[in-house]
Write a structure and sequence with these properties.
Helix content: 10-25%
CATH architecture of the largest domain: Sandwich
Number of helices: 7
CATH superfamily of the largest domain: Probable inorganic polyphosphate/atp-NAD kinase, domain 2
Order of helices and strands: HEHEHEHEEHEEEEEEHEEEEEEH
Structural class: alpha+beta
CATH topology of the largest domain: Tumour Suppressor Smad4
Strand order of the largest sheet: 7-6-17-14-9-10
Radius of gyration: 20 Å
Largest sheet: 6 strands, antiparallel
Shape: globular
C-alpha cells in the first residue's frame, strides 16, 4: 500500500520506530513493530490513520486520553475527518516532526449501557428495529424531561459527528471548536420535530418511553446493544478526549463546503461571497 510505504520510507530515513496494530501489520506484511491497540496508544508520539472516516474514528479511540495526536490520511472517497491525501503524506510528517502544526481537541461522549460504558466520537443513536415500532424517546437534561420525540431514530452527536448521521437527518453543521451535544431526530413523526443543542456541562439521559419499540443503540455506526421501553441511557460529554493534527492548509469551513458539496441559494449571484 502506497500510504504504508510512504510512512515507513519517511521513518527509515530518520531512524524513527513505527508501531502498528499486530493484526494489520500481519495483513499488510510490513516492517512496522506489531503491538496491541492499547500499547500503540500508550507508546506512540503520533497516531497516523490510513483510511476513511471510520478508520479515523478508530484511531481517535486508540488515542483517547493519551498524549499522541492523530493525523488523518484519506484513502476513501469523502475522508471528511482526514487532514491530508497520500501524495502529501511525507511533507505532512516532516512538518509535524518540525513542530509546524496545531492541535484540534475533539469531544467524545460516553454512553452508559447497563454496566458498560461505550464511547463515541461521532454519535450515539437509538434506532428503530424494523417491525418493532418507532423510537419514542424523551431527552432528559439535568434530571428533568426536556423534549420528547417519536422518530425512526434519535441521534446525539458531537460537533465532530455533526457532518455524519446528524447532518443527514437535518441537523446543523457545527465547528469542532464548539463544545456541545446535538440532538437530532431522524424522520420524526411527532408534533415536536426540531433538534436541540445541549451544554456539555449538563447530564443528559435518553429515556425510552412506554410506547417505544425495541431500539438498537448505535455507537459511531456500530450496534452496541438494544434497549426497550423503560430503559435509560446516560450520556456524559468529555471535551478534549482526543486531539487531531491540523497543518493549517484548510479551515473546517473550507473542508465542509468542499467535501459536503455545499451550494448557495439559487437566488444568490455567483459573484457574491467568493
Amino acid at each position: 500500500m502506497a500510504a504504508v510505504q510512504a510512512v515507513l520510507g519517511w521513518a527509515a530515513k530518520r531512524d524513527i520506530e513505527i508501531l502498528g496494530i499486530a493484526g494489520e501489520v500481519s495483513r499488510l506484511d510490513c516492517a512496522a513493530v506489531p503491538v496491541t491497540a492499547d500499547e500503540l496508544g500508550r507508546r506512540a508520539d503520533l497516531v497516523v490513520s490510513l483510511g476513511g472516516d471510520g478508520t479515523m474514528l478508530r484511531a481517535m479511540r486508540i488515542a483517547d486520553g493519551q498524549r499522541a495526536p492523530v493525523l488523518g490520511v484519506n484513502l476513501g472517497k469523502l475522508g471528511f475527518l482526514a487532514e491530508v491525501d497520500v501524495p502529501d503524506l511525507p511533507d505532512a510528517l516532516t512538518a509535524i516532526d518540525d513542530h509546524e502544526f496545531t492541535i484540534e481537541p475533539r469531544l467524545a461522549v460516553d454512553a452508559m449501557l447497563g454496566d458498560r460504558t461505550v464511547t463515541a466520537f461521532n454519535d450515539v443513536a437509538v434506532v428503530r428495529v424494523p417491525g418493532d415500532g418507532s423510537a419514542v424517546v424523551a431527552v432528559r437534561v439535568a434530571g428533568h424531561r426536556f423534549v420528547s420525540y417519536a422518530a425512526d431514530a434519535v441521534i446525539v452527536a458531537t460537533p465532530t459527528g455533526s457532518t455524519a448521521y446528524s447532518f443527514s437527518a437535518g441537523g446543523p453543521i457545527t465547528s469542532p471548536s464548539v463544545e456541545a451535544l446535538l440532538v437530532t431526530p431522524a424522520a420524526p413523526h411527532s408534533s415536536w420535530s426540531r433538534g436541540v443543542v445541549l451544554s456539555v456541562h449538563d447530564t443528559v439521559e435518553l429515556e425510552m418511553l412506554p410506547t417505544s419499540g425495541r431500539l438498537a443503540v448505535e455507537v459511531d455506526g456500530e450496534v452496541a446493544g438494544y434497549v426497550g421501553p423503560g430503559d435509560r441511557i446516560e450520556l456524559l460529554a468529555r471535551p478534549g478526549a482526543a486531539r487531531v493534527v491540523r497543518l493549517g492548509r484548510t479551515t473546517f469551513y473550507q473542508r465542509a463546503r468542499r467535501k459536503l458539496r455545499l451550494t448557495d441559494s439559487a437566488e444568490i449571484p455567483d459573484t457574491i461571497g467568493i
